[in-house]
Amino acid sequence: MTQIGSYEHRVTSEVGRLRTVLLHRPGAELKRLTPRNSDKLLFDAIPWVGRAQEEHDAFAQALRDRGVEVLYLSELLQDALEYQACRDEAITCVTDDPRWGDQLRRVVRDYLCDLDPEILAHVLIAGLAHEELKIAHGLVYRLMNRLDFIIDPLPGLLFTRDNSAWIGDRVAITSLAMPARRPESALTGLIYKHHPRFAGVEPIYDRSLEHVEGGDILLLSPGVIAVGTGERTTPAGVERLARRVLGAGLAHTVLAVPIAQERATMHLDTVCTMVDTDTVVMYPPMAHSLTAYAVTASNGDLEVTGPRPFLDAAAEAMGLDRLKVIDTGLDPVTAEREQWDDGNNTLALAPRVAVAYERNIETNAQLEAAGIEVIRISGSELGTGRGGPRCMSCPMLRL
Question: Which residues pair with 256 in a beta bridge?
Fold first, then answer.
């Protein structure tokens, strides 16, 4: 187990008792969303930011009430930016934008270099609007639309699951597919590289590699990892991740799981999450149609078998007779509605204890009927970016 001072970092399953989690409290970056840019920034609606913050605070408190240490991404970033090496890397990363040209790049660099760590962290997350850079001049700046951003805001940071994921005692800094979200993994990479809490942590993946997103990575059991491949994670990304985790001894089986390349099923965890060591909550139309390819190590290379039904392949790899399934909803219409509202996207705090959005009434009732304790949270505003409790959390320690 990676242990730095008194800090430990290790995750080998979806349902081990959650001890430490990384969240991002929504802030000014959500206030930058408008009807003009919401599609580009991947939000389906314009959230009421104050209410979203209240909902997120309640989510964080629900975790603390169960003994979970809650870390905030913005605070860790601010701490890391106290170190000059981190500042230099952050500023170089954000100014490496071919849209700008040399003159604007120089002006922005000078502007960022003058900011203290707190304000610099704010700008890296909330962005820099055209009108906020009063000292700029030159052709690129003058030809920009005054409503555009020089540095784009990152509202997707709310979903900390996507830009990094712990596999055993190693962290995967993921390679995000959508241009609007790629800077997120740059920021998490800075945190893991420069924050003293993570000194000595060795990444198992990085953002320069083929596309892999954390919402597609499910740690089914110690040694068994399912990775969705669809809208966000590519087959090449699954292969690269499999090669690395198998080579490092972090898993003995990786299940590559094709999913529909659609907004409603952007990640594997939008259709399936675990609520017990042998139980998943799953969108009914996919429960018996989802398939998996088993990837294992063989003579220094990868061996691929399948496809087989996902539930069968997962159970065999996990050493189970079968994997139990709790359906989303009770009828096709309810199931479709609650799947869209992240009914499958639960966050397990321990075996048979899960956090879920309160609005998914039928799915929550199904969970409770199966003996799962459901901790309900509100998410009318948090869900506008298409993500639930699992999406909003990056576990760092499960026991």
Answer: 227, 293
Q: What is the CATH number of the domain that holds 335?
A: 3.75.10.10
Three-class HEC string of 377-393: ECCCCHHHHCCCCCCCC
Name residue 396's amino acid.
M
In one-letter notation, the amino acid at residue 209 is L
256 lies in which domain range?
Answer: 63-70+156-398
Check: CB of residue 191 under 8 Å from CB of residue 212: no
The answer to whether the CB of 99 falls within 8 A of the CB of 140 is yes
Q: Span 150-176, mean pLDDT? A: 95
The mean-pLDDT minimum among 1-15, 98-112, 119-133, 296-310 falls in 1-15
**What whole-number percentage of the chain has pLDDT above 70?**
93
pLDDT > 90? residue 322: yes
For residue 123, give the amino acid letter: V
Query: Phi and psi dihedrals of 325, rounded to 5?
Result: -125, 130
Contact status, residue 69 vs residue 20, Cβ threshold 8 Å:
yes
Residue 391: active-site member: yes
Q: 3-class SS at 347? A: strand
Q: Which among 86, 93, 272, 391 is annotated as catalytic? A: 391
Q: Is 10 left (phi over 0), alpha (psi -120 to 50) or beta?
A: beta
pLDDT score of 99: 83
Token pair belonging to 250: 């972090």
Query: What secondary structure letter does DSSP report for 125?
Result: H
Instruction: Domain count for the chain, please give it.
Output: 1
Give which of 97, 91, 130 is closest to 111, Cα–Cα: 91
